[in-house]
Amino acid sequence: MSTINLTLKIWRQENSDSLGSLEIYPLDNVHTDMSFLEMLDILNEKLTKEGKSPVAFDHDCREGICGMCGAVVDGIAHGPEKEVTLCQLHMRNFSSGDTIVIEPFRSRAFPVKKDLLVDRSSLDRIIQSGGYISVNTGGTPDGNSLPIPSNEAELSMDAAACIGCGACVASCPNGAAMLFTSAKISQLALLPQGQPEQKKRALAMVAQMDEEGFGNCTNARECEAVCPKGISIRNIARLNREYLFATLSEG
Amino acid sequence: MELNSRVPSGPLAEKWNNHKFTNKLVNPANRRKYRVIVVGTGLAGASASATLAEQGYEVQTFCIQDSPRRAHSIAAQGGINAAKNYQNDGDSVHRLFYDTIKGGDFRAREANVYRLAEVSNEIIDQCVAQGVPFAREYGGTLANRSFGGAQVSRTFYARGQTGQQLLLGAYSALSRQIHAGKVTMYNRREMMDLVLIEGRARGITVRDIMTGEIESYYADVVILATGGYGNAYYLSTNAMASNVTAAWRAHKRGAGFANPSFVQIHPTCIPVHGDYQSKLTLMSESLRNDGRVWVPLKAGDSRQASEIPEEERDYYLENKYPSFGNLVPRDVASRNAKEQCDAGKGVGNTGLAVYLDFAEAIKRDGEETILKKYGNLFQMYEKITDSNPVKEPMLIYPAVHYTMGGLWVDYDLMTTIPGLFAIGECNFSDHGANRLGASALMQGLADGYFIIATSVAHYLGTHSLEKVVGTEVPFKDSKREVEDRIDKLLKNSFDGPAGKLTVDQIHKELGHLLWDYCGMSRNKENLEKALEELPDLVNKFWDYVYIPGSGKDLNQSLERAGRVADFLEFAEIMIRDALSREESCGCHLREESQTEENEAKRDDENFTHVSVWEHTPPGEFPKMHKEDLVFEFVKPSQRSYK
Fold first, then answer.
1. Residue range A3-114, CATH number
2. Of the candidates B432, B413, B410, which has an alpha carbon nearest to the alpha carbon of residue B424?
3. B129/A119 touch (CB, cutoff 8 Å), yes or no
4. Alpha carbon distances (Å) from A158 to A128, A237, B73, B190
5. How confident is the model at residue A77, as a pLDDT?
6. Which residue numbers in chain B have pLDDT < 70?
7. Nearest CA in chain A to B349
8. A117-127 pLDDT, tens digit each
9. What pLDDT does B81 receive?
10. Residues B286, B465 contacting (CB under 8 angstroms)
11. Window B:515-544, CB contacts with A under 8 Å
12. Chain B residues within an 8 Å CB radius of A84
């Protein structure tokens, strides 16, 4: 195990209404086996002991599945390593002497609340508008009554793996939530259970996406490049098809 | 404290049906007049909120994270059990019931466990209907795998992300009700207190994490779905925000706390590698389907795994337990790993690890097949440790994972406080002294989707409740107490951090104390030592804790401080519980009570009970009550997995 010395430039912002700025913090003896968030923990312990205000950031499971953590590291959402969340990014990806710039996920629909912590409730509202199959508890048919080809279940699972972290939005030049929205639409459109509400769902979720102030997709593919779960933009193609189909037949 | 389990009479298989029939109902048109508070949005909380809202109740749901989708159920990897018997390998409701009660070392209530097994099948149907993408066979039917403590294949799964998919299913059902206006969702709220009026649970006091505002909410029924308390140990597989505060506050208001010492130490976690570590990561138990656990035959063997020839390896689980092999229950696997490491046969830099080896499975089934089953787990392991499990065996070691103990509840999942219910990991009800793999998801969803609504209807149907509006004296008092406590937490901080301690420093000390003295194996001497040392740690916390910032703002240090303060109080009943249970059972190994082969030795004559702790005023010891467990339908036997 080795240690490295770093210079951190971190976005500090008191609240949504105040102006923020990048502050510089040197941090020495960082173990390379640490996760990025553990490195921030060490910084926060140090700031606390110096009587300074620790850096606010969202995090919870620290195993890459809850989707709560995330920051833009050196211009890349969740940092330089492919298909990991910030909590699963390890310091072995950095070298001694590096300067690391850490900023919040920025987008019109994600107001910064404090430091690296943003409000992503707009993503919840997209799901609320139609990201489900309308089935009440109880009275459902036997699980095996509807055979689903294994490959379709797997494709659906590929899309369902979305953790709702918002890295796709933060990295998109248009601030679009198309990858997020298309992941849920695809998961359900690929399953027979999702068919009855297929059109209604596409129309409602796209309308909500627009209402929240998210942009539209211009195939920059930045979202796919940073997605910690490797969600493909093929899902956006499927969303477009679902939406077009719904618009043409339901207007 | 009265402990009436309200277990219905009659044959085991008819209890639940009869109970549903005899329980009172609330007319659909009247349900909208009742308000229900649900705290927590994991599998239990989200499914309960959605189900109650669908039935017509006015629901207010609270979660600590920025979105209800993030609750820690999401991290469950391996799967969910159900007695579908799709594999035709001899499974049945009765077998799932028996495996679960035996897995729990006969320290759970028969009727509750049977009901759990009974509703397990409905859960699978429900989740399929919601669009949960379970793994399928090529013919399109649902696939299964095996888990520890069972000899049938009854675990349904969605790759290594089963908890995520089930939670997102429940979250989607909840989202639908939020959209319909039936659930009001309060994100980033932390429950700080329970409010009682005339002895009944009538509301909660919460802190808005973003603004620091202390708020009161009232209801006719309060349901806690606030998870477990594994983070008392500092390092665990729990999420960072998982805590005991809501349950502990309810306990301080009069809810009995059952079996607090029953903590599951999961055998397959990534070992500790540094003192900066903030949490431990679980590697799903499903890996034990194909992975073989071993250590070098000779103590102190420091060769690389690849250099140790087959005949110099000790596949200790396969050798010791030939019929269950690597798939023995979690407590057995954990204890054996510790035993090997204590004997100097541990591997890795620290000597506190054993191998989990996939070489043979890869040779047998091919790399592609193994990666299809466990690809995401292998990837996660490699990200953390920088080592590829396809090329070299995983290093694993036990870690705190799940708490079988929790708020005491009756058959209706109601605590000793009328109108206060506890569901999911937050209660103690189904897993006895050890939980089997893939049963936590089953219990969370059973409680939320299929049990709690019946209980709520019965409670409302049998009591006429006074109207409350949230401004009554008990609400105001609770709010003031919460504010006073926050002021007390901040009292050391006005003159800066010099000579003070951070929250994490004290939390780590508590973690070490509990892990060393009240961890995988326990004895009288150490537990007494823990009881002696604990008050000093509590005083140290209140005298020296330094918390930057104020209470009137987003303050993550203050949030953690409040939780650690409660863990410190809670630790006392954990230790006392472990001390008073002078037998070994499931997770709870008292060194004084072992068989000749070092297996847990129960003492059924003296300890066939649930220990339920009552909170007492300062200066008095917490008081223990007993609910005797009656086994009418199964005979407790020495658990054997040989």
1. 3.10.20.30
2. B413
3. no
4. 21, 15, 20, 33
5. 98
6. none
7. A1
8. 999 999 999 99
9. 97
10. no
11. none
12. 383
Collapse the DSSP code of B99 into the 3-class scheme (helix H, G, I; strand E, B; otherwise coil) and give the result.
Answer: helix
Check CB contact under 8 Å for A60 and B240: yes
A251 confidence band (pLDDT: 50, 70, 90): low
Q: Alpha-carbon distance B412 to B454, whole Å? A: 8
What phi, psi does B268 have (nearest 5°)? -110, 85
pLDDT at residue A1 in the model:
65
Q: List, as own/partner pairs, every contact residues B467-471 make where C-beta atoms lie below 8 angstroms and the sequence separation is at least 24, other chains included.
A: B468/B197, B468/B202, B468/B203, B468/B218, B469/B218, B470/B203, B470/B216, B470/B217, B470/B218, B471/B216
ipTM higher than 0.85? yes
By the CB < 8 Å criterion, does A211 face chain B? Answer: no
Q: Give strand pairing partners of B258.
A: B406, B612
Pairing of strands B257-258, B189-197: unpaired
**CA geometry: angle B574, B576, B579, nearest 5 deg:** 110
Q: Tokens 């009172």 — which residue?
A: B24
Q: Which of residues 220-249 of A touch B (CB under 8 A)?
A: none
From the list B122, B133, B140, which residue is nearest A156 (CB)?
B133
Q: Which pLDDT value is given to residue B596?
A: 84
Question: What does the mean pLDDT of chain A come to?
Answer: 97
Residues of A in contact with B556 (CB under 8 A): 54, 56
Task: Assess whether the region A3-114 and the region A120-250 belong to the same CATH fold.
Answer: no
Nearest-by-Cβ selection for B67 from A121, A138, A156: A121
Q: Which domains can be identified in chain B, with CATH numbers?
A: 1-262+404-635 (3.50.50.60), 266-400 (3.90.700.10)
A120-250 CATH pick, 2.40.40.20, 1.10.1060.10, 1.10.10.10, 3.40.50.300: 1.10.1060.10
Q: What percent of chain A has pLDDT over 70?
A: 99
Write out pLDDT tens, residues B605-635: 999 999 999 999 999 999 999 999 999 999 9
pLDDT of residue B454: 98
For B31-61, the pLDDT digits (tens) are: 999 999 999 999 999 999 999 999 999 999 9
Name residues 207-236 of chain B within 8 A of A (Cβ). 210
pLDDT of residue A78: 98
Mark yes or no for CB contact B557/A188 under 8 Å. Answer: no
Inspect the interface and report whether the beta carbons of B66 and A68 lie closer than 8 Å: yes
A132 touches chain B (CB under 8 A): yes
pLDDT in tens, A10-37: 999 999 999 999 999 999 999 999 999 9
CA A12 to chain centre: 21
Chain A residues closer than 8 Å to B277 by CB = 38
CA–CA dist B223, B415 (Å, integer): 10
* B180 close to A (CB below 8 A): no
User: Which residues of chain B lie closer than 8 angstroms to A53, CB-CB?
Assistant: 548-549
- As beta bridge partners, residue B627 has B610
Number of Cβ within a 10 Å radius of residue A192:
11
| Residues of B with catalytic function | 330
Q: Count of CB contacts below 8 A, A vs B?
A: 224
The DSSP output letter for B427 is: B
Domain extents in chain A = 3-114, 120-250
Supply the angle between the helices A178-189 and A234-250 in degrees, to the nearest 10. 70
User: CB contact, 8 Å: A38 with chain B?
Assistant: yes
Scanning every residue of chain B, which has its alpha carbon at the shortest distance from the alpha carbon of A230?
Answer: B376
Residue A76: closest CA among A61, A60, A94: A94
Strands of the sheet with A3-12, listed across from one edge: A21-31, A3-12, A99-103, A72-73, A76-77
